[in-house]
Recover the amino acids of this structure.
C-alpha cells in the first residue's frame, strides 16, 4: 500500500532529522537524564541514533486502561478503540451572534455538565476552556476540582510547573489512593506539547516528568503549521513533527520505563494568504491520518484531530470542516480524539451551539462507520415477495422491529415540512442545550475526599468562597 510506503519513508527521514538537527531540551534535568543514558548532546540538543531512540520508544505500552471514578466509564486507549474527549485550552466563548467574552469558571462547569450528559464521552475535564476569573497559579487545580465534583468520568487535567502538579497529585491521592494505587490504576491524563521546531520547554518537561513519576498517561503532541513553523510540504511537516514526538516519548521512558503515552499530532497547514492556522483543512485531516498510521507503525496509542473548524461562529463552514476532520480521525482509528466537540476559530473559542452540533456529527459518523449487516433478518426475501410491486413497508412488523436500531434518529436535524425553516436549527439547538442542563444530575462525591482536596486548595491560598461556588454551581 502507498500509505505503508509513505510511513516507512517518513520514519527514515525523521531519523535523519533527529541525528542531524537534534531535539533541544530546555530543562536541565532532562539534559542530565539524556546524558546519563548515553545520548550524544551538543549543549542542550540531543542527537539520538535510530537504535537508541527506538530502544526507548518500544518501552511504552501498546495500550493502557484509564480508570473512571464510575467504573462504567473506564476505557481502554489503544488498538482500534476510539474515544471522544473534550476540547482543550480556549480562552474565549463565542456567542451565535459573533460576540465574544473571556471564559469563566461558570462556563467551564456548564461545559463539564454537557460532556457528562453525552453518552459518547467517557472522559471529562482538562482545560475545556481557560477560565479567566480564577488565579492562574491554581487554575489547573481548580479545573480538576470542578471536573471531579461535577462528573464521575475519566479525568483529563491541565499541565503546569512541578509545584502546581505536585499539589494536583495530592488532590488525586485524596480522591483515588496513594501513589502506588495511581500507578497500578491510572486516573489522570494530560497533554505535553512540543515546540516546533524540535524543542521541549521547561513547563512541558516538568509536566512530562511529574506524570511519568506517578505513572499517569499523557499525550505527547506536536502542532506544527506547514508553511510557517514547518516546511510547506505536508510530508516534511509530518516527518518533522514525528521526530519531535518520538524524542519526547523517549525521554518519558527514561524517567519511568513503561509510562503510558499517546503519540499525537495536531499539525496542519497555515493559510498562505494570511499565515493563520487552518485547523479545519483537508491538509490537517491528512496529518491526523498519518498520525494514526505512524503511531500504529511504532506500536503506540494515538491522539489527533477532533471536530475542528476555523469558522468564527457555528455556521456552514463549521459543519463541513468539523465533519472532515472528525471523520478522518475515526476512519484511521485515532484512539483519543480531544476537541471532539465545541471548538472554533483556530482553537481560540468554545461555542455552546457548536458543541451541540458536534454531538450530532459524532452520532452521524458513528452510524456511518457501523455500516450494515447482511443476513436473513436484514434482507427479508419473503416479505419483499409478499409486499410485491405495489405495497408499503411502513406498517410491517419488520419495520417495527428495526425502526429504532437501523436508521439514526437525529436530535438536531430538521426534516419534513416546517413553517419557518430559516431559524429552525437555532431554535432546536437552544432547546437541546436547555434540556441537557435541566436533565443533568450531579454524581455523588465523598465528603471526606472533598475535604482533603479543599485543604490542598486552601493551603495554596485559594479563597474558600471560590471553592464553595464551584461545588454549588
Amino acid at each position: 500500500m502507498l500509505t505503508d510506503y509513505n510511513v516507512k519513508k517518513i520514519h527514515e527521514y525523521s531519523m535523519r532529522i533527529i541525528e542531524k538537527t537534534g531535539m533541544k531540551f530546555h530543562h536541565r534535568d532532562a539534559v542530565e537524564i539524556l546524558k546519563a543514558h548515553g545520548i550524544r548532546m551538543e549543549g542542550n540538543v540531543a542527537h539520538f541514533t535510530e537504535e537508541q531512540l527506538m530502544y526507548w520508544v518500544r518501552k511504552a505500552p501498546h495500550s493502557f486502561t484509564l480508570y473512571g471514578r464510575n467504573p462504567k466509564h473506564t476505557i481502554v486507549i489503544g488498538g482500534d478503540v476510539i474515544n471522544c474527549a473534550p476540547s482543550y485550552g480556549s480562552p474565549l466563548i463565542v456567542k451565535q451572534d459573533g460576540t465574544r467574552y473571556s471564559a469563566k469558571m461558570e462556563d467551564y462547569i456548564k461545559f463539564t455538565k454537557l460532556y457528562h450528559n453525552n453518552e459518547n464521552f467517557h472522559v471529562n475535564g482538562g482545560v475545556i476552556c481557560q477560565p479567566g476569573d480564577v488565579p492562574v497559579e491554581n487554575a489547573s487545580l481548580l479545573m480538576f476540582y470542578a471536573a471531579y465534583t461535577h462528573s464521575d468520568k475519566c479525568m483529563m487535567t491541565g499541565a503546569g510547573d512541578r509545584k502546581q502538579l505536585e499539589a494536583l497529585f495530592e488532590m488525586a491521592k485524596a480522591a483515588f489512593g496513594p501513589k502506588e494505587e495511581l500507578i497500578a490504576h491510572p486516573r489522570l491524563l494530560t497533554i505535553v506539547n512540543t515546540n516546533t521546531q524540535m524543542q521541549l520547554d521547561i513547563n512541558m518537561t516538568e509536566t512530562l516528568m511529574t506524570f511519568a513519576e506517578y505513572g499517569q498517561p499523557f499525550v505527547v503532541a506536536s502542532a506544527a503549521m506547514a508553511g510557517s513553523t514547518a516546511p510547506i510540504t505536508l510530508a516534511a511537516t509530518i516527518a518533522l513533527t514525528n521526530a519531535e514526538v518520538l524524542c519526547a516519548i523517549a525521554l518519558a521512558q527514561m524517567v519511568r520505563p513503561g509510562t503510558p503515552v499517546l503519540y499525537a499530532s495536531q499539525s496542519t497547514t497555515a493559510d498562505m494568504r494570511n499565515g493563520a492556522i487552518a485547523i479545519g483543512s483537508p491538509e490537517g485531516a491528512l496529518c491526523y491520518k498519518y498520525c494514526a498510521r505512524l503511531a500504529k507503525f511504532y506500536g503506540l496509542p494515538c491522539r489527533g484531530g477532533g471536530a475542528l473548524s476555523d469558522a468564527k461562529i457555528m455556521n456552514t463552514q463549521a459543519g463541513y470542516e468539523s465533519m472532515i476532520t472528525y471523520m478522518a480521525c475515526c476512519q484511521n482509528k485515532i484512539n483519543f480524539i480531544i476537541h471532539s466537540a465545541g471548538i472554533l476559530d483556530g482553537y481560540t473559542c468554545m461555542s455552546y451551539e457548536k458543541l451541540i452540533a458536534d454531538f450530532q456529527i459524532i452520532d452521524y459518523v458513528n452510524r456511518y462507520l457501523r455500516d450494515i449487516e447482511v443476513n436473513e433478518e436484514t434482507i427479508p426475501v419473503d416479505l419483499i415477495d409478499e409486499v410485491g410491486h405495489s405495497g408499503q413497508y411502513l406498517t410491517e412488523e419488520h419495520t417495527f422491529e428495526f425502526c429504532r436500531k437501523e436508521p439514526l434518529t437525529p436530535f438536531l436535524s430538521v426534516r419534513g415540512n416546517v413553517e419557518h425553516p430559516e431559524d429552525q436549527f437555532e431554535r432546536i439547538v437552544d432547546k437541546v442545550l436547555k434540556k441537557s442542563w435541566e436533565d443533568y444530575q450531579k454524581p455523588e462525591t465523598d465528603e471526606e475526599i472533598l475535604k482533603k482536596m479543599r485543604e490542598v486548595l486552601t493551603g495554596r491560598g485559594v479563597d474558600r468562597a471560590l471553592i464553595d461556588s464551584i461545588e454549588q454551581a
